[in-house]
Every structure is written in structure tokens, then in C-alpha cells.
Write a structure and sequence with these properties.
This protein is an alpha+beta fold and 721 residues long. Among the domains are: 24-53 and 266-401, Multidrug efflux transporter AcrB transmembrane domain (Multidrug efflux transporter AcrB transmembrane fold); 79-236, no CATH class; 461-622, no CATH class. Helix content is 57%, strand content 11%. It is built from 20 helices and eleven strands. It has helices at 7-30, 32-51, 68-80, 100-114, 156-169, 202-219, 231-264, 267-290, 302-326, 331-358, 366-394, 401-423, 427-446, 468-479, 501-515, 526-537, 551-558, 586-602, 615-650, 653-676; strands at residues 85-92, 133-138, 141-146, 182-188, 224-230, 486-493, 520-524, 574-581, 608-614, 693-699, 705-712. A four-stranded antiparallel sheet has the order 7-8-6-9. β2 (133-138) and β3 (141-146) form a beta hairpin. The longest helix has 36 residues, at 615-650.
Length: 721
């Protein structure tokens, strides 16, 4: 069963292709010196562009804009702020926070955070900001004010008063640690810095936060520790790790060069593929700048991938080149022969890579789409540098006669092992291996439904578990009832819905429902706040912590709740329910969103719609759903492209199946550790999301294609921080 054309037509097609390829090859090597000079000039130009490459990180690029959650988020972002928050927690290391030194530092940190670049200043909250207030019941009615009064002095009496105000304000567990050992400064960041009019530079913000941390901890001599979490700090830590990655890249180049030299046996022969692969990296980075793109910190491993694939193909070139020289050909003739043997199968192999990366464009998340463009651009330039520049460079090399003797000795040692292995591949053992492989593939396929999309641990998986950021996350989530992970359910209702008993009672029922979901730390909404205010009108009696049915009484209960709280808009037609989560694990997000959808389905109301979702956890939930929905289409596109390219290259259905079936098995088996281990397929780690199968065919000396089997190329997990 093959799909090969009739013998006569196959020979005719082969002669036509060979004739065209031979003419092009002769032209290329006839003009090799001008072409090398042109490559050199182009590399210099791309190097200049690469030197201007900028780090381009943006919170908005992580948003799957076509998802219904993000539609809700963007619709109400102007009224209730974005999901890009930063929390700065000051923790006293001895005793509680009620000391003059702690409050002096808290006030100074509040001011410093307020004036960081791109901070939305009206949204900053701490004990020292005027939007943090308390209300209490007194003999004459209600009394209220700022948690820290204007006449505050760092005396025991004032501290006792502030402690009482914190409890009255309901900020215990939110802006103040549950055990009074620390306090938080919360800020939201804008994508456009209003001072400069430019996009936010997350590295500048992260550096400012780090300087703040060092100043406080140094000035307090270790009595106050600072813990910082938020998207800006993640980008800063990843960027800091990226600097170390550059050192690792340099070390990888050295190690790779040594390995290629050990294989090739000559420095000149080893340097050629390494240099051409580095040229491909330069072209890739320069091309990004020329096209108007930057380098996302989460894409920092793409140049590693390009370099690795380039060296892989380059080693094949030098192997074929030296084999031709051993047949007695001179340098140009050997380089021409190597070029003609490897150009078609090599391009097919790299096209499978390119198509595999481009299929990620199916995921409508800008940061993943930019990664797809970055990777496919890098693989595409390898076709030019390794299949055209490298043979031209090899044509100038000369190998001494003693080199053939050295290679023959190396081959004699290796051939003995492979000869014994081939001799054992009789029909019986071969069938056992095939059955075992297909059995393993079937098992992995059946287990594919267990794949986990999203994070499987608290903190940021792109950083080490013991990184400063993840340690800060653990401290804040353990000491406070909130963290940086907030999912807001937007309740769209009728105008003045806050004084409609049917609406607010439904919100109150929803709040009680969602509190029972595992992973929810606390819930805040207008309904719960109105109940507290109403009890105040009843001298603080818990009996009156209810929602009044009378419209005027209900209006009295909600009137102290201002729009600055983020719990309602100007005409009370939109009222968020803020859900503070213990973490952003995939299971937590899935449980909360499922509970919200279930409640909305079982409690339909013409006056109130419960819509997902705002907050950073809402964004992550949307991203997880987009990635999960795109996985199967991407795999179908990838394997469809591989099958098509194999049929074009081999003109045989059998050959195509022999390539694709092992690739499919390897794909599912390779993804298995992520499903059963501690890792998950996270939106920030696209390398762990999909499997890109690729095939590297070679030409047999008589001109027939030989599939060498499946290869998986992908960078290792980057532990930064």
C-alpha cells in the first residue's frame, strides 16, 4: 500500500527536480564568494537590529481577548480597575506591628508605592490612604473616619485606637495580617504610564519595588521584612533570571562546540555549524526588531531552540561533506554533493517545525501568538543559514589524508555496537518491540483525558519553588485572608439595583454559596457590607445583620458604601462580588468558575446576571479554558501537516505512517510526566503545552529517502528566580 506515482512518471518528476536543483546548485557555488559576502553584510545589519531588541512584557498581552470572561473584564475595567495588582506586605519579625518604627516605614512605603511609574494612584490602598475608613455605631448613631486619624501620634494610646479602627473597618485579613504582625500596601498598575504616555516598563517598576525592599530591610536592620507579589514583580524576577540565562547560553555554546569538535575531530569542521547556527540566532533576533516585535521574558528560551536545531542540522551537513571528501572529491564538489543530498529532506524537516509553531496561532492570546511568530521565524532562518551558508563555508575547507584514518577508527568502534544491535532485530524481537510501543501509546492516549491545564501549585511555576517571589506568596497567603489572586463575578442588574431587595438578597445567597467552595479564602460584596451597616442602625445587634425588605431602609444600609470601594458603580447597575482565592491552581479556578456557572444556571433572574469574570484569577481561568479548547485542534493541524509533508517527501503512504505513528506515540508519552507529576500545562509555559513532532529524513547514497525517526525539540523548563 503506497501512494507512489507510476514508475515512468516518478522518474520523470525526479529528473525534472534533479535538473532544476543541479542548475541552482551550480549557480550558487559558482558565486560562492559574493554570496558569503552578502551573508556577512546581512548578518551585520541583523546584528544591528538585534542590538536594539527590547524586552516587551505586557499584562494585556496575556489576555485571551475573544473569551467571554475577558469581554466582561474589559467592559467594566474602566469602572472597577484592572487585574494588574501589586501587593507590598511589611511584616514585623518580633512582636506585632504596633511600633513607631513600623508605622513610619508603612507610611513611607505607601508614599513610595503611590509614586512608582504607572501606578493608578487613586486605587492605592493602605492604612495611611484616605480611602480606607471605618464606620461604628455610637450613642448618637454612626461615627466614622480614616483608620489612622489625622492627629495620629505613635503612642500606646494611638496604637490602641488604630487597632480598634482596623477591626471596625473590616480590613483585618485584607490590609492587616490576621495576627496583627504586618500590613499591606495594595496598588493597581496602568498599561500606559500617564506621566510619560509610554507603555509601562515592568522592569523599571520591579526594580523600584526591589529598591524599596532593600531600603526598608536595611533601615530596619532586619526587624521588618518586605514581601512583594504581583505581575510586575514576576516579570522583574523573570527578567533577572534571563540575565543568568544569557550566561547559560554562552556556556551552552562552548559545550556544544566541544561536543561537535569531539564528533568532527577538526576545529574548522566543528566551528562551521556552530557559527551558522549563531548567525541564525542573530537573524532571528534582528528580524523581530525589524518586524516591530520585542522579546517577551517568557520566550527567552526560543534562541536556545533555534541554536539547537541549527547545530543538529549542521552536524548532518558536515557528516555528509566529509563522506564525500573521503570518496576523493575536492571541497567544492563535496559541499555541492552534501547540499544536493540534504536540501530537500532538511527543508521538509524544518517545515514541520515551522508549521508546528505556527499552529499556536490558533490560541488567541497575544503573548502565545508572538511566541509562535518568534519560534517560526527562527526556524525559518535556519533554512537559509544552514542549507545555503553552511555548504558555501564548507566548500573552502580541506581535510588531510590522516583525517580519513581517524574517522575510520572511530567508525569501527561504533559500528561494532550497531551491527550487534541490528543483528538482533529479527522478526520475533521486532514484533515484541512494536507491540510494546503501541501498547504504551494506547495507554498514554487513554490517560490523555487526565491532562491538567493550568498551575498545580501556588505561586509562579516559572520560578523555583524556593524563589523569593514564591516564598513571599506563601507568607502573604498564610498571614492574610487575601492574596493577589482575586476573581470578581460581575453582577449586572437594573439601575439602582443596590436598593432592590430581590437583587441584593440573590447576591447574598450567591456569596454564601461561593464561600463553601474549596480554595476560597473570603468573599466581599455590597450585600454583605449592607448587612453590617444595617446592624449598626440596630445598635450593632447581630439580629439586625440582615438585608431589609423595605426599599428606604435598604437604601439607608447601602448609602455609606461608596463607589471607591469597588463594590458598585455610580448608578448601582453593576456590582462586583470579589472572591479572594488561596491560590490560582487549576483545580481552584475550575471549582470556583464551575460553582459560579452552576449558581447562575439554577438561579435565573430577569434583574441580575452573574457574569465571569474580572480580577487576575478570572484572567487565568479564561486562559486555561482557551488553552484546553485549542489543544486538540492544534494537534490535528500539526499531525496533518506532518503527514502531508511526509507524503510529499517520500511519495509513500507506508513511509508516512512509519514516521507519523512513532511521533504520535512519543507525543503522548512525552506529555505523560506533566500529567502525573507535580507540573501542569501552564499558560505562561507554552513549551509544556503542546508537542511539536518533527522528522529528520536523510538521503541514502543511492538517492532514496531514509526516515531516521522521531525527534522532539523543546527547551528545558526554565527555573528562574
Amino acid at each position: 500500500m503506497t501512494s507512489a506515482p507510476p514508475p515512468g512518471r516518478s522518474a520523470e518528476i525526479g529528473r525534472s527536480q534533479a535538473s532544476t536543483l543541479e542548475r541552482f546548485t551550480l549557480w550558487m557555488f559558482r558565486h560562492r564568494t559574493p554570496l558569503i559576502l552578502a551573508f556577512t553584510a546581512l548578518t551585520a545589519i541583523m546584528g544591528w537590529f538585534a542590538s536594539r531588541l527590547r524586552v516587551d512584557a505586557s499584562f494585556n498581552k496575556t489576555l485571551p481577548r475573544n473569551h467571554e470572561y475577558i469581554h466582561t473584564f474589559l467592559k467594566h475595567q474602566g469602572e472597577f480597575g484592572g487585574a494588574n495588582r501589586v501587593l507590598v506586605a511589611l511584616m514585623a519579625q518580633q512582636g506585632d506591628m504596633f511600633t513607631p518604627e513600623f508605622f513610619a516605614e508603612l507610611k513611607r512605603v505607601t508614599d513610595e508605592v503611590t509614586f512608582l511609574p504607572a501606578v493608578d494612584r487613586p486605587q492605592v490602598q493602605s492604612l495611611f490612604t484616605p480611602n480606607v475608613r471605618y464606620i461604628e455605631v455610637v450613642e448618637d448613631g454612626f461615627s466614622g473616619g480614616n483608620v489612622i486619624p489625622a492627629d495620629f501620634q505613635p503612642t500606646p494610646e494611638s496604637f490602641a485606637r488604630v487597632r480598634e479602627n482596623i477591626i471596625k473597618s473590616g480590613k483585618l485579613g485584607q490590609l492587616v495580617a490576621n495576627d496583627f504582625t504586618g500590613a499591606i500596601v495594595s496598588a493597581q498598575l496602568l498599561e500606559i504610564d500617564p506621566k510619560t504616555g509610554n507603555k509601562i516598563d515592568y522592569q523599571v517598576v520591579a526594580d523600584g519595588l526591589e529598591r524599596l525592599r532593600q531600603r526598608v530591610e536595611t533601615a530596619s536592620r532586619g526587624t521588618i521584612r518586605v514581601h512583594i507579589i504581583g505581575f510586575a514583580k514576576v516579570i522583574g524576577d523573570v527578567g533577572e533570571g534571563a540575565r543568568n540565562v544569557l550566561l547559560l547560553f554562552g556556556a551552552a555554546i562552548v559545550v556544544t562546540t566541544l561536543l561537535v569538535w569531539n564528533y568532527a575531530g577538526r576545529w574548522k569542521l566543528a566551528a562551521a555549524p556552530v557559527v551558522c547556527s549563531l548567525v541564525a540566532v542573530v537573524w532571528q533576533l534582528g528580524g523581530l526588531t525589524a518586524l516591530g516585535y520585542g522579546m517577551d521574558p517568557f520566550s527567552i528560551l526560543v534562541p536556545f531552540l533555534v541554536f539547537a536545531i541549527g547545530v543538529s542540522h549542521g552536524v548532518q551537513k558536515i557528516c555528509t561533506f566529509r563522506n564525500e571528501m573521503f570518496k576523493g572529491q575536492d571541497g567544492p564538489s563535496a559541499a555541492r554533493a552534501a547540499f544536493m543530498q540534504l536540501i530537500l529532506p532538511g527543508i521538509v524537516a524544518l517545515l514541520t517545525d515551522t508549521v508546528g509553531f505556527l499552529t499556536m496561532l490558533v490560541i488567541k492570546i497575544p503573548t502565545i501568538q508572538e511566541l509562535a511568530i518568534t519560534a517560526s521565524l527562527g526556524v525559518s532562518v535556519i533554512i537559509i543559514t544552514n542549507f545555503f551558508l553552511l555548504p558555501l563555508i564548507l566548500s573552502y575547507l580541506r581535510l588531510p589524508p590522516s583525517y580519513a584514518t581517524w574517522v575510520a577508527g572511530r567508525r569501527a568502534t561504533g559500528d561494532a555496537l550497531w551491527s550487534r544491535l541490528v543483528a538482533s532485530m529479527k522478526p520475533g524481537p521486532s514484533m515484541v518491540i512494536i507491540v510494546l510501543c503501541f501498547g504504551a501509546g494506547a495507554w498514554a492516549f487513554l490517560k490523555s483525558s487526565e491532562i491538567r491545564i493550568g498551575d498545580t501549585q501556588a505561586g509562579v511555576p516559572e520560578l523555583r519553588p524556593d524563589s523569593r517571589y514564591n516564598r513571599d506568596t506563601r507568607v502573604i497567603t498564610s498571614k492574610f485572608s487575601i492574596g493577589v489572586d482575586i476573581l470578581s463575578v460581575i453582577v449586572e442588574t437594573v439601575p439602582d439595583g443596590s436598593v432592590d431587595h430581590e437583587v441584593v438578597s440573590l447576591m447574598d445567597e450567591f456569596e454564601g454559596h461561593i464561600r463553601e467552595v474549596p480554595g476560597v479564602q473570603s468573599v466581599v460584596s455590597l450585600a454583605s457590607m449592607a448587612k453590617i451597616v444595617n446592624s449598626g442602625y440596630g445598635e450593632g445587634s447581630l439580629k439586625w445583620r440582615i438585608l431589609p425588605r423595605n426599599k428606604d431602609t435598604l437604601a439607608q444600609a447601602v448609602s455609606p458604601i461608596e463607589t471607591a470601594t469597588g463594590l458598585l458603580n455610580a448608578n448601582s447597575s453593576v456590582m462586583p462580588v470579589m472572591i479572594f482565592l488561596a491560590d490560582h491552581k487549576a483545580e481552584t479556578l475550575r471549582a470556583v468558575t464551575s460553582a459560579v456557572k452552576a449558581f447562575a444556571a439554577t438561579h435565573p433572574s430577569p434583574k441580575a446576571k452573574f457574569l465571569l469574570a474580572s480580577g487576575n484569577a478570572g484572567v487565568m481561568a479564561a486562559t486555561n479554558e482557551v488553552v484546553a479548547a485549542a489543544e486538540v485542534p492544534i494537534l490535528l493541524w500539526v499531525f496533518g501537516a506532518v503527514i502531508a509533508l511526509c507524503l510529499i517527501a517520500f511519495r509513500s503512504l507506508r513511509a508516512a505512517l512509519c514516521i507519523v505513528l512513532p511521533l504520535e506515540i512519543v507525543s503522548y508519552l512525552a506529555s505523560r510526566p506533566w500529567r502525573g507529576g507535580s507540573g501542569g500545562i501552564t499558560p505562561a509555559g507554552p513549551w509544556r503545552r503542546f508537542r511539536w513532532p518533527r522528522v529528520e529524513p536523510h538521503w541514502h547514497p543511492v538517492g532514496l529517502p531514509i526516515p531516521t525517526g522521531p525527534f522532539r525539540h523543546g527547551p528545558p523548563h526554565l527555573d528562574r528566580g
